[in-house]
Amino acid sequence: MRKITRKLMLKNVPVGGNSPVTVQSMCTTRTHEVQQTLEQIEQLHEAGCEIIRVAVPGGQDATALRELAEKSPIPVVADVHFQSLYVFHAFDAGVAGVRVNPGNIRKFNDKLQEIVNAAKLNGIPLRIGVNAGSLDDEILKKHGETATADALVEAAMKEVRLFEDCNFHDFAISLKHHDVNTTVDAYSKLSELVDYPLHLGVTEAGPKFQGTIKSAVAFGALLRAGIGDTIRVSLTDNPIEEVRVGREILMSLGLKTRALEIISCPTCGRIETDVIELTARLETALQNYGQLGEKPLKIAVMGCIVNGPGEARDADIGVAGGKGKGDIFVRGKVIKTVPEAAIIPQLLRLVEEF
Ligand code: SF4
Question: What is the pTM of this model?
């Protein structure tokens, strides 16, 4: 059962409450290079990204926020560390949200109450991000110099109390660790203690394959337990991959409607066509299927004529490979046979008709 958290609004995108779990990512461009950043945001949006975060390490980046906030098709969250001046810049620029740690602000120049007042005045929610790599010495010492789940939760609760002491409650929390078990334990424990929306993430999850598995396992365990309101998959790769993986995780759990499902056989000794290559080509050609609201579609790519159509009877369209050819079928019934080179164009034509 989904844990109902407080709802916050990033412009028109709700996070928490009973709203759908959203997919977010972070730009890899230099934020002050506005054109490149907007182009990347557009690509990520097309891939299904619903919220975008940008780093604000310097004054030029803070200045760029206004144009980004105005022109971005999805809510922009400014990621600020330490410099409270940039938090005020971000509010003025009209961003949808700001990621900032109250503990850092307190250490830096103690403008926390002013930040809270400005956030309230502008109706801009904040996010606390507790990271295994930046726990304070006191907490680390108490937990045996290790960023355990309890250490992460304690650090998060310390930050939460700083906001609550300022009578501020419009914020989400993330607890980032690179280890799956620690991540799951930490979010599970925190979820028992607070009702603020939770931003799920396995930080520094690694290269695409490893990071995808780690994120899927951690988010799968948490989301199945009803924990998590927005997700960010962290991959050492193009952020478009993060968005694709994030969407796939949500679709696999039934938390997002799956627009395209490719049912492809694992192949066996009966295989007649290169199913792996055909499937990869189809996946690439249709990677943005569904972004414009196309109806759900199941396509089957099967390795042989003997069992293919029967095994994939509930697919809308499909192909069963033969020697140098493919039987094209619609809902389990073969409608024509085409040479191997014509399989993908034929399937794409059927997708269009569909
Ligand atoms: S569809 Fe044919 S090739 Fe693919 S797994 Fe089934 S029997 Fe083997």
Answer: 0.88
